[in-house]
Amino acid sequence: MASSSSSSAYSAIRTPPLRFASKPSSDLSLFPSQTSRLFRRTRIPSLRSGDGPKNSSRIGGPITRSDRHRSRISVKSAQVMEPPMPRETSERVSTVVEVDLKDRSYPIYIGSGLLEEPDLLQRHVHGKRVLIVTNTTIAPLYLDKVIHALTHGNPNISVETVILPDGEKYKEMGTLMKVFDKAIETRLDRRSTFVALGGGVIGDMCGFAAAAFLRGVNFIQIPTTLMAQVDSSVGGKTGINHPLGKNLIGAFFQPQCVLIDTDTLNTLPDRELASGIGEVIKYGLIRDAEFFEWQEKNMHALLARDPSALVYAIKRSCENKAEVVSLDEKESGLRATLNLGHTFGHAIETGFGYGQWLHGEAVAAGMVMAVDMSYRLGWIDDSIVKRVLSILQQAKLPTAPPDVMTVEKFKASMAVDKKVADGLLRLILLKGPLGNCVFTGDYDRKALDETLHAFCK
Ligand SMILES: NC(=O)c1ccc[n+]([C@@H]2O[C@H](COP(=O)([O-])OP(=O)(O)OC[C@H]3O[C@@H](n4cnc5c(N)ncnc54)[C@H](O)[C@@H]3O)[C@@H](O)[C@H]2O)c1
Ligand SMILES: [Zn+2]
C-alpha cells in the first residue's frame, strides 16, 4: 500500500501561473479578412521555462519536448476592459484565442453577435451535411439563428437537427443513442459535421457522439452557458455519466472551432450564470492571481452581465484553459489542476443526486473545502481562505456542502474518483501565494478527515 509519506510516484505537480503582459501589445491585425467584424489579437508572451515558481517540479514530459511545446503556445486575444469607447464600437470588438494542439489546433471565437457572422461557422464545416444537437430549452431560442448562420449564402448545406430533453440526468447512454439514431436514419457520412448548440451537457454528449460516430466526424461547439463558454467547450473532454459516477464514459476529442456568442448569455438564468462564475474563479485560484484580483473588483459587473466584463472573463478563462490543455491534453498531470474543488464537488453531485445542485455550485462548495484543507495543512495563509469565501459569497455561490452530505457519502464517492491511483486519492490543493496549486497524494490524511468533519453534520 502506498502511504502518504512514501508516495514518490505521486509527487506534487505544481502549476505555473500564466504570465500576462501588463499592457496589450500593439500587434493589431484584422481577422478574419472575409468578415466585417474587427478581431483584435494581442499576443501574450509564451511561458518561458524559468517562469514557474523556483522550487516547483517540472510539469510532466521530457524537458526538451515540454520547452518546445511551451514556446509555441500562442494565446491571442483582445484587451476588452479598456478605456470607454462609444458603445457601437465596443460592441464590435471580438477576440480569438487559439488552442495550440499541433494538427488539431483550433480557434475559440469570442464576442457579441458572432452568430450573425455566417462565414465564421461555415469555414469550419466539413462536407455538406450538418447535424445540430441541442435541447428543448435552447432550440426555440437559438436553433433558427444557427441554421441561418450555417446555410446563409450556402444552399448546398443540408442541416439535420436532434432536439434532446434538457438536463444533466439525460447525459446518459439512452439519450446519446438518439443522436446516433438521427445520424444513422438520415444517413450521415464521415464527412458530416456535428454542431453542439447548448451548455456543457449538450457539448459533452454531442462531442462524444462525434468522436464515436463512424469512428469520428468533425464537430463544432457553440456553447450557450457561461459554464460551457469558459470551460466545458474547450479542451476536448467529451462524455456521459454512469449511474455510479459522473463523466465515467467518454473520449478526448477536439472540435474544429468553438464559437462563443456572448449574446446567448442574455437568456441564461442567474443561477446558471453564477455556476459558470464558479469555474472562472477557479482559474484565478489555481494559476492566475491577477485574474482573481480583477474578479474581486469586477464581480458586480459580471453579475450584471456587462458585455465587456463577460468577454474579458471568458477570454481570460479560455486562455488559461487553452494553455493548460496545450501542455497536457490527456491529463497526465497539469490538466488535473483544472479540477480544483471537483473531487469534493463531484461527491456532492453524486451524493445529492445529479441535477440538485448545478455543477459550478458543487464546485464552489468543493473549492471552499479544498482551500480549508490547504489551510489546515499549513500550505496557505488565512487571507486566501477569507478572499475565497468572500468572492464566492459575492457571486452568490454556496460555500459549504448541502446538509445531506455526510463524511461517509464523501468518502464513498472519493473512493471511485478518477484521481485515485493505487488506492491513493490525489487532490488539487492550494500551496504558496495566491495563484499556485499542487496536484498531489502526498498530504497528511488527518487534514482531509478534519475538513470532512468540519463541513459535514
Ligand atoms: N467537458 C468538460 O471539460 C467539462 C467541464 C466542465 C463541465 N462539464 C460538464 O458540463 C455540464 C454542465 O454544463 P452547464 O452548466 O452548461 O449545464 P447545462 O448544459 O445543463 O445547461 C444549464 C441549463 O441552461 C440551459 N441553457 C443553456 N444555454 C442557455 C441559454 N443561452 N439561455 C437559457 N438557457 C440556457 C440548459 O438548457 C440547461 O437547462 C456537466 O455535465 C459537466 O460535467 C464538462
Ligand atoms: Zn467543472
UniProtKB/TrEMBL annotation:
EC number: 4.2.3.4
Subcellular location: Plastid, Chloroplast
Catalytic activities: 7-phospho-2-dehydro-3-deoxy-D-arabino-heptonate = 3-dehydroquinate + phosphate
Annotated SUPFAM superfamilies: Dehydroquinate synthase-like
Record InterPro entries: Dehydroquinate_synthase, DHQ_synth_AroB, DHQS/DOIS_N, DHQS_C
CDD domains assigned: DHQS
Pathway membership: Metabolic intermediate biosynthesis; chorismate biosynthesis; chorismate from D-erythrose 4-phosphate and phosphoenolpyruvate: step 2/7
Record-annotated membrane-spanning stretches: none
Gene3D superfamilies for the chain: 3.40.50.1970, Dehydroquinate synthase-like - alpha domain (1.20.1090.10)
Start and end residues of each 3-dehydroquinate synthase N-terminal domain: 162-274
UniProt domain 3-dehydroquinate synthase C-terminal: residue ranges: 276-420
GO terms, molecular function: 3-dehydroquinate synthase activity; metal ion binding
Family per record: Belongs to the sugar phosphate cyclases superfamily. Dehydroquinate synthase family.
PANTHER family in the record: 3-DEHYDROQUINATE SYNTHASE, 3-DEHYDROQUINATE SYNTHASE, CHLOROPLASTIC
Entries under NCBIfam families matching the protein: aroB (TIGR01357)
Official protein name in the record: 3-dehydroquinate synthase, chloroplastic
Organism per entry: Cinnamomum micranthum f. kanehirae
